[in-house]
Design brief:
three-stranded antiparallel β-sheet; alpha+beta; 12 strands
């Protein structure tokens, strides 16, 4: 029997290149991995992580119509998610709605002052215990950028009416920053109230999804997760009336109550109402009409641009002798078409149409348009929101200064109503850290320049009377109380005052000085006539000041 010779082909593995995987198969694999998220929550990828980050504050929107908005508003109790989705979608599709949200959320200046509570003897302000607790207050505001954080929270409140956070103050107390970590609103459920606001529960199935790493969240979540799913987990009766100290022990199925003692905090624009109805939800049907009004204005522009030239095709002389002829025109259709083409080529404009017909008394037509339709819609829309349109957009409408100031004052009063809930948060967090002394925090002011002028002028008037309130001055200037004092101390130690040039009294100045004449009034003190004179520079032509 002949021996069989085996032939082995040498293959260089290092030089072998696998063919690329089609893009469609890549996405199939990713979708499959995402579907396994509930079974294998420890599966991570940049794609899944990005998806979970979007889940924090993005909802599925869909097409927004007037009918959809009106249907949701007809039953707001059972349409919370629908209204939140519409609010989110309108912010992306309507510049007007986005500007309203930005304007209202950026209006507060979040300036602040503090006051020690229950100080019986003024000498206590010099005691070591007070200075130690005051240092805690100082360090807190150095680590926590409350203006930035509260601005983001207020913007979310105007979008969703309620928002939920975990206050992260772990890490190095010297170099670390305190931040507010937003929690997924769809996993949070309002379940109670206490003296400082709203209480909520959290759905821990959030951590069973692929792409969610519990190590990226507060340690309180780890404790709660082990209590729900750990081997030592035990069933505990759900009692809504538990105190704040023991509230975190409450659990039901996969839900656990969140306690402010564990730095969980909820903010709500209208705390008296448990439902989450966006503040500007009444505008949704009108905002949904914006694409329709925009198309109507476009059609109006197109109609106004069209010119129609009509020509009459004459008929044969009826008095002429001879038999009657059907279609007795004095010009054949072929010849008329050639003449019309000649006229069209001479005009050479697509907006001008040329036509002919065997009719009498033909005339040229031009359609008159209404160019104010869209602008009128936008003005009325902002009026429904209670906001002066001149504060957000420039328009052909003449600005009324008094009306503008009054509108800004109303907006200021509306937003200052949310200050107490943020004051409660600051006081709770600060007074947890202090030992003997507790502090009251007061927020004030807006970014509107008239409000800043008023507050600073008020403090200047009091200072002239011998009443100096350094905290109020720093707040009027928009500065941190302790930074203001630090700058004063540094200027004093470095002799900065010695570099100042003495101010010359007005009685010693020459009459030719450019600073002579009546002092310039603030914008809030002049009337409509004065505003018009200042705007067109009427006083400059007379050698005066504008």
């Amino acid at each position: 029997m002949p021996r069989i010779k085996k032939v082995v082909n040498d293959i260089n593995v290092e030089n072998t290149v696998s063919p690329p995987i089609p893009e469609e198969q890549v996405w199939d694999v990713l979708e499959f991995a995402q579907s396994l998220g509930g079974l294998y929550p420890a599966v991570y990828s940049p794609f899944l992580t990005n998806q979970r980050m979007k889940d924090m504050n993005l909802l599925t929107v869909g097409e927004i119509t007037q009918e959809r908005a009106e249907k949701a508003l007809a039953n707001p109790k059972d349409s919370e998610r629908e209204l939140l989705a519409i609010s989110e979608g309108l912010e992306y599709t309507s510049t007007s709605y986005r500007r309203i949200i930005d304007y209202m959320s950026n209006l507060p200046s979040w300036d602040w002052t503090y006051a020690a509570i229950k100080v019986d003897d003024p000498n206590e302000f010099k005691s070591p215990a007070y200075k130690k607790d005051l240092k805690v207050l100082k360090e807190f505001f150095y680590h926590f950028d409350h203006k930035h954080e509260f601005n983001q929270i207020l913007k979310q409140l105007l979008r969703e009416e309620a928002t939920f956070y975990s206050f992260r103050n772990e890490g190095d107390q010297i170099n670390s920053r305190f931040v507010m970590q937003q929690l997924p609103s769809e996993k949070c459920l309002i379940t109670g109230r206490w003296e400082n606001g709203i209480l909520f529960s959290f759905d821990y199935t959030f951590f069973l999804q692929g792409g969610v790493d519990i190590n990226m969240f507060s340690d309180a979540f780890k404790t709660g997760f082990l209590e729900l799913f750990g081997k030592d987990g035990k069933i505990i009766d759900y009692i809504p009336s538990r105190s704040i100290d023991t509230r975190s022990e409450n659990q039901f199925a996969y839900m656990k109550d969140c306690s402010p003692e564990q730095d969980f905090w909820s903010f709500k624009f209208q705390p008296a109402v448990a439902g989450r109805i966006p503040y500007f939800s009444g505008l949704f049907p009108d905002l949904a009409l914006q694409p329709t009004v925009r198309n109507l204005q476009k059609n109006n522009y197109m109609a106004e641009a069209v010119k129609l030239i009509m020509g009459e095709v004459g008929t044969l002389n009826k008095d002429a002798k001879g038999p009657s002829v059907r279609d007795a025109f004095n010009l054949s259709p072929e010849m008329a078409a050639k003449f019309m083409q000649l006229v069209k080529s001479a005009i050479n404009n697509s907006a001008v149409s040329v036509a002919s017909a065997p009719l009498s008394n033909m005339k040229a037509f031009q359609f008159e348009g209404n160019n104010d339709m869209y602008e009128s819609y936008m003005t009325n829309l902002l009026g429904l929101a209670g906001i002066n349109g001149n504060l957000l957009f420039s328009s052909g409408q003449k600005a009324n200064q008094s009306e503008t100031f009054l509108s800004a004052d109303i907006d200021q009063h509306i937003l200052e109503n949310v200050y107490p809930m943020f004051e409660n948060f600051l006081e709770f967090q600060i007074n947890k850290l202090t030992k003997k002394y507790k502090f009251k925090i007061t927020l004030q002011g807006t970014r509107f320049y008239i409000d800043k002028e008023r507050r600073l002028e008020r403090q200047t008037t009091l200072a002239n009377m011998g009443i100096v309130l350094p905290q109020q001055i720093s707040a009027a200037l928009g500065m941190n109380v302790f930074e203001f004092q630090t700058q004063l101390d540094e200027a004093r130690i470095n002799g900065w005052v010695d570099n100042l040039t003495p101010i010359i009294s007005s009685f010693q100045q020459s009459g030719a000085s450019s600073d002579t004449g009546r002092p310039r009034k603030s914008d809030s003190d002049i009337g409509e006539a004065g505003e018009e004179t200042r705007s067109n520079g009427g006083n400059l032509s007379k050698g005066g000041k504008n």
